[in-house]
C-alpha cells in the first residue's frame, strides 16, 4: 500500500505511488505430482521408464514430474493416431467434427482462469498476458476453425479437399497453449488426427488440455500428447507412420528437420525465428509509437518470434523517441508473473537466460551503448531487466541474431528507401511494423518489406482469421485463416 503522509491539518496525501501486491490465486489450478503420456484417450505410463521435472522459472521450484516419451512411446502414440483415423474421424460428418471443436473452445473459455494461472506458473509469463492474450486467442482459434470444418468444399471449390492423415506437431515454450491451438484446431477441422509434443519447459497446459479433450468427449486417439525433449521430437519427425510435420521453434532445428524429411514425401510446415524491424517515421504519433515499441519487444519478455527487436527510428525524431522510450521503460514492472500488475515476468529457463546474457555481453563488447532502467529483481528465479541498445551497427550480433529476450536494438534511417534496405538486411522475414500517419507510405512500405506480417501503427496483433508465417529463414507455410487449412489437406 502507498504510505500515507498524515499531517494533522491536511487530507492524507500518498507519499508514493507504489502498487500494492495484486496476486492471482494459485489454487484455482491443481497440479498433479506426475503426468504420464496421453495416448488413445488414456493416461499411459512411459515405456521409457523416464521422467523429468518442469519448474516454475520465477521460483526455480519444480512443479511436476512429466513422462519422457522414448521411441517406443512415440510409436504407440502414432499407432493410436492411425487407429483413430481409420476408425472414422476423417469420415465423420464435418458438422460432427465442428461440434467437438466448438466444445473445446467453450471449455477453454470456461476454464480460462485455471489455464492462465498454469501457463504463468510453468512458463513465467505475466498473468495479465496469459489471461488477456493467450487464453482468449486459444479459444478463438478453436471457434474459428470449428466454423471451417463443414465448409471445406466451399473454401476450396472443385478441389475435393481431404485430410492428409496423421500430423506430428512440435511446439515451443513461448506460447504453449496458444501454439497448441494454432496446430490442433486446423488439423482436426480438416479431419486429421494428431500427436503433439509440447516443449520440455512448458508441458503443463498441454497436459491440462487432455482433460478438456475428455470433457469434450473427443474420440480416443484423435489427439495424443507426448512429452519429452528434442529427442522425442526427432522420433516424431522420422516416424514412418506420420504424414505431416508442423514445427514451431528455432531456425537451427527447423533446418535439421527439413534435411531429415527431404525426399520422404512427408508434408512439412516450419514457423521459425525472426528479427523484425519496427520502423518509426517522423510523422508518426510518437507516444502511440512508443507504446508499440514497448509492446513489440517487452511483451512476453521478448520471447516472441515476431518481436520488434530491431527498432528503426527516422533521424529527425530519434532524440524524442529515445527520451520517451526510456521514460516509459522506467514504468515497466518486472517480477512475479502471478501479480496482476506485472508487465515483464520471468525468463522461461536458465538456458534462455544464459543465451540472452551472452548476446547482451556481445553487444557491449562490440561497442553499442546499453541502457537499463533502475529495477529491483527478485532474488530467486530467472530475470532480465528490459534493455535497450543504441549506437548499434547493422553488423553487430545484437542486430543480426534472434535474442528472444527483452532486448531492443535501435538503429536510425533518413529516407524510406534506406529504411527498406536496412529492414530487409536479415536472413529472417517473419514480421515488421510501420509507424506513420500516411496511408500511402504504409502501402509503399508493405510492398517492399520482405516479411509475412506487417503491422501498421500497431504491433503484435493476432487474429485467427489472419494467416501468419514467414519468408526466408523464418520458415514456410501459413497458420491461421483459410490458408492455415491447406497444410492439413490433400487435393485432387
Ligand atoms: P528448439 O527449436 O530446440 O525447441 C522447440 C521445440 O522443438 C521443442 O519442443 C523441442 O523439444 C523441439 N526439438 C528440439 N530439437 C528437436 C529435433 N531435433 N527434432 C524435433 N524437435 C526438436 O528451441 P529452444 O532450444 O527451446 O530455443 C533456442 C532458441 O530458438 C531460442 O533462444 C529462440 O531464439 C529460438 N526459438 C524460437 C521460437 C519461435 O517461435 N520462433 C520458439 C522457441 C525458440
Ligand atoms: Mg516450466
Task: Lay out the secondary structure.
Elements: E1 4-5, E2 13-14, E3 34-35, E4 37-39, E5 42-44, E6 51-56, E7 61-67, H1 71-89, H2 94-110, H3 112-123, H4 127-149, H5 152-155, E8 162-163, E9 166-170, H6 176-189, E10 193-197, H7 204-215, E11 223-225, H8 230-238, E12 244-248, H9 251-261, E13 267-271, E14 277-280, H10 286-298, E15 310-314, H11 318-329, H12 350-366, E16 369-371, E17 387-390, H13 397-400, E18 407-413, H14 416-423, E19 431-435, H15 439-448, E20 453-456, E21 475-476, E22 489-490
Parallel strand pairs: 3-7, 9-10, 9-12, 10-11, 12-13, 14-15, 14-19, 15-18, 17-18, 19-20
Antiparallel strand pairs: 1-2, 4-5, 6-7, 8-22, 13-21, 16-17
1,4-dihydronicotinamide adenine dinucleotide (NAI) is lined by residues 170-174, 197, 199-200, 229-230, 233-234, 237, 248-250, 253, 256-257, 272-273, 305, 352, 355, 402, 404.
Amino acid at each position: 500500500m502507498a504510505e500515507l503522509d498524515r499531517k494533522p491539518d491536511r487530507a492524507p496525501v500518498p507519499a508514493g505511488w507504489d502498487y500494492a501486491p495484486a496476486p492471482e490465486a494459485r489454487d484455482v489450478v491443481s497440479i498433479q505430482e506426475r503426468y504420464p503420456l496421453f495416448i488413445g484417450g488414456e493416461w499411459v505410463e512411459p515405456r521409457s521408464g523416464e521422467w523429468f521435472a518442469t519448474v516454475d522459472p520465477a521460483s526455480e521450484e519444480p512443479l511436476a514430474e512429466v513422462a519422457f516419451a522414448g521411441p517406443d512411446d512415440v510409436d504407440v502414440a502414432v499407432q493410436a493416431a492411425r487407429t483413430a483415423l481409420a476408425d472414422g474421424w476423417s469420415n465423420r460428418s464435418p458438422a460432427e467434427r465442428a461440434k467437438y471443436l466448438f466444445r473445446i473452445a467453450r471449455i477453454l473459455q470456461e476454464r480460462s482462469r485455471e489455464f492462465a494461472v498454469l501457463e504463468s506458473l510453468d512458463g513465467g509469463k505475466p498473468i495479465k498476458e496469459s489471461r488477456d492474450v493467450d487464453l482468449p486467442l486459444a479459444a478463438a482459434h478453436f471457434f474459428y476453425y470449428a466454423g471451417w470444418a463443414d465448409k471445406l468444399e466451399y473454401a476450396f471449390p472443385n478441389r475435393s479437399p481431404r485430410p492428409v492423415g496423421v500430423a506430428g506437431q512440435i511446439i515451443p515454450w513461448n506460447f504453449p497453449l496458444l501454439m497448441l491451438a494454432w496446430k490442433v484446431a486446423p488439423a482436426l477441422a480438416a479431419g486429421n488426427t494428431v500427436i503433439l509434443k509440447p516443449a520440455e519447459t512448458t508441458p503443463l497446459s498441454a497436459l491440462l488440455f487432455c482433460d478438456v479433450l475428455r470433457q469434450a468427449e473427443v474420440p480416443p486417439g484423435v489427439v495424443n500428447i507426448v512429452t519429452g525433449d528434442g529427442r522425442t521430437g526427432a522420433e516424431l519427425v522420422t516416424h514412418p507412420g506420420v504424414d505431416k510435420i508442423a514445427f514451431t521453434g528455432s531456425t537451427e532445428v527447423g533446418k535439421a528437420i527439413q534435411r531429415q524429411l527431404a525426399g520422404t514425401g512427408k508434408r512439412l510446415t516450419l514457423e521459425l525465428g525472426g528479427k523484425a524491424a519496427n520502423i518509426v517515421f517522423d510523422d508518426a504519433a510518437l507516444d502511440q509509437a512508443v507504446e508499440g515499441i514497448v509492446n513489440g519487444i517487452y511483451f512476453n519478455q521478448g520471447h516472441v518470434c515476431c518481436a520488434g527487436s530491431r527498432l528503426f527510428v527516422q533521424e529527425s525524431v530519434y532524440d524524442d523517441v529515445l527520451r520517451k522510450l526510456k521514460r516509459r521503460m522506467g514504468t515497466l514492472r518486472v517480477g512475479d508473473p502471478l501479480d496482476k500488475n506485472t508487465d515483464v515476468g520471468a525468463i522461461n529457463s536458465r538456458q534462455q537466460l544464459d543465451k540472452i546474457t551472452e548476446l547482451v555481453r556481445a553487444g557491449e563488447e562490440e561497442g553499442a551503448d546499453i541502457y537499463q532502467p533502475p529495477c529491483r529483481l527478485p532474488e530467486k528465479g530467472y530475470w532480465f531487466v528490459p534493455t535497450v541498445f543504441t549506437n548499434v551497427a547493422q553488423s553487430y550480433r545484437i542486430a543480426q541474431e534472434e535474442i528472444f529476450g527483452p532486448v531492443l536494438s535501435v538503429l536510425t534511417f533518413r529516407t524510406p528507401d534506406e529504411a527498406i534496405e536496412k529492414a530487409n538486411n536479415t536472413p529472417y522475414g517473419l514480421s515488421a511494423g510501420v509507424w506513420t500517419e500516411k496511408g500511402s507510405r504504409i502501402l509503399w512500405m508493405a510492398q517492399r518489406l520482405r516479411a509475412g506480417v506487417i503491422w501498421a501503427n500497431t504491433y503484435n496483433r493476432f487474429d485467427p482469421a489472419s494467416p501468419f508465417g514467414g519468408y526466408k529463414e523464418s520458415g514456410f507455410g501459413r497458420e491461421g485463416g483459410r490458408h492455415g487449412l491447406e497444410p492439413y489437406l490433400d487435393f485432387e
